[in-house]
Amino acid sequence: MNEIKRALLSVSDKTGLVELASYLSKKNIEIISTGGTAATLVGAGCRVVEASEYAGSPEMLDGRVKTLHPKIHAGILHRRSVPEHVSQMEALGWSGIDLVAVNLYPFEKVSAKKDAAFEEVIENIDIGGPCLLRASAKNHAHVAVLCDPADYPLFVSEMEKTGGQLTNEFRLRLAQKAFARTSAYDQAISRYLQDVAGQGSGLGND
Q1: What CATH number is associated with residue 100?
Q2: Which ranges of 48-167 would DSSP assign to H, the alpha helix?
Q3: Is residue 144 part of a domain?
Q4: pLDDT for position 1
Q5: Which residues pair with 7 in a beta bridge?
């Protein structure tokens, strides 16, 4: 079990966000955040480190690239129990990220709109979010992952119950849910593109 010292919050659905961040702040857990999530938290008086500042790399391409950076993914993926991983992180001066709370762009909702333009639907395909969820879920032995705002109160309850030392069983349950979410998300995208391709419309060069 590992103490949570640093969290990355990057959400489309802001439900419960401020409450979660306020709890983390009370526990002296550093919060890294992006774009609209960071703006919401700052507006609510929460202390936040922008992901671009943390990574030393700006958000770019109209927000298409925000968290796709080695410092962020190494912070999530390194195994704290492997000395070589720890020494590599120390040599780079990089820190671990112990909690990731991410929910994805609303692709299903946007693609279901009858008047949604193909370009709008494509821009609601999340790239960085699924990467963060999958990385966190893969390394669930060391990282807790939250993909559903409905789980925030459960997370807080478990933190209080275990004194901040979440059990492996709890992390595993969160990891399974994260992989189920990314799987369903990819299936929805695949079905949509299959339908568009079958109609022979909406395709073309950028």
Answers
A1: 3.40.50.1380
A2: 51-55, 70-77, 83-92, 107-111, 118-123, 128-138, 152-162
A3: yes
A4: 52
A5: 31, 99
